[in-house]
Amino acid sequence: MRRLFPVTPVTDQTAGPGSDGADREWSLAELAAAYAYPEPAGGSGAWLRANMVSTLDGAAQHDGRSQPISSAADMRVFGTLRALADVVVAGAETVRQEGYRPARSRAEFAELRRAAGQRPAPAIAVVSASLELDFSLPLFTSPLVPTLVLTGAAAAPDRMAAAEKAGARVVIAGDGVGVDPARAVDALVALGHTRLLTEGGPRLLGQFVTAGVLDELCLTVSPMLTAGDAQRIAGGPSVEVPRRFALASLLEEEGFLFGRYRRD
Ligand SMILES: NC(=O)c1ccc[n+]([C@@H]2O[C@H](COP(=O)([O-])OP(=O)(O)OC[C@H]3O[C@@H](n4cnc5c(N)ncnc54)[C@H](OP(=O)(O)O)[C@@H]3O)[C@@H](O)[C@H]2O)c1
């Protein structure tokens, strides 16, 4: 891993083999420092970050999964971002397709989480209107931290009851069957979660973008081309005016680029 941006005396390769600019294996602690959430600044103090991977031609999946377009370094960043988060928000289709399991507690991050006042692992929050989820899965029955199910007030009561019976906590964040993305953020903050991470998928991320509540995008650009008609990282109705984000940092490993973009 090496840092390409910002270029500073520490990232400059000529600063020596231990510098950020030299290609070397980064420890998880270094990655965690590079991706630290900003200090709470006014308002709710919440920060919504998305983590997504895309191919060069914009595909967000191959054969219905993101794993074929990912890499070992991408998975290290993925794990680090989870380890920094209070809660991981995912659309139900991603949960179904990627076979989500509960987030685990990792010894490497235990002290960091304890010092930040966080539980040993982030909660997973599944966004669903249909509640067509298999509530017998470990994601719902045996997480370290109860899984949240974000849905609308008009969602099927029997499915809500099934979620709660399995051990999940149902959180209402919309008046109809669906979730209002801004209300979802507010509901998570009300539960004490401020370091928010969404792992998509594209249909959910598109709604956070159009609602104007996305603060940061961590984007892995995978050096692959797939053609075809895969979804791109954000879908759904387009915004009226393109949202401008600013590059905060850019890391590279084996041709994979790890950008961090913040709302401008
Ligand atoms: N490249 C990447 O980084 C990345 C990341 C994540 C996923 N993916 C890929 O993306 C694909 C899945 O993504 P997707 O975009 O099709 O689906 P998604 O966003 O993961 O999930 C869509 C589902 O989420 C629920 N949902 C979304 N918005 C909602 C709202 N406002 N209110 C209530 N429920 C809402 C609905 O669930 P119900 O149907 O239950 O109502 C909807 O069908 C998979 O192939 C996955 O591998 C790629």
Automatic annotation (TrEMBL):
<protein>
    <recommendedName>
        <fullName>Bacterial bifunctional deaminase-reductase C-terminal domain-containing protein</fullName>
    </recommendedName>
</protein>
<dbReference type="GO" id="GO:0009231">
    <property type="term" value="P:riboflavin biosynthetic process"/>
</dbReference>
<feature type="region of interest" description="Disordered">
    <location>
        <begin position="1"/>
        <end position="22"/>
    </location>
</feature>
<dbReference type="InterPro" id="IPR002734">
    <property type="entry name" value="RibDG_C"/>
</dbReference>
<dbReference type="GO" id="GO:0008703">
    <property type="term" value="F:5-amino-6-(5-phosphoribosylamino)uracil reductase activity"/>
</dbReference>
<keyword id="KW-0560">Oxidoreductase</keyword>
<dbReference type="Pfam" id="PF01872">
    <property type="entry name" value="RibD_C"/>
</dbReference>
<dbReference type="InterPro" id="IPR050765">
    <property type="entry name" value="Riboflavin_Biosynth_HTPR"/>
</dbReference>
<comment type="pathway">
    <text>Cofactor biosynthesis; riboflavin biosynthesis.</text>
</comment>
<feature type="domain" description="Bacterial bifunctional deaminase-reductase C-terminal">
    <location>
        <begin position="47"/>
        <end position="243"/>
    </location>
</feature>
<dbReference type="InterPro" id="IPR024072">
    <property type="entry name" value="DHFR-like_dom_sf"/>
</dbReference>
<keyword id="KW-0521">NADP</keyword>
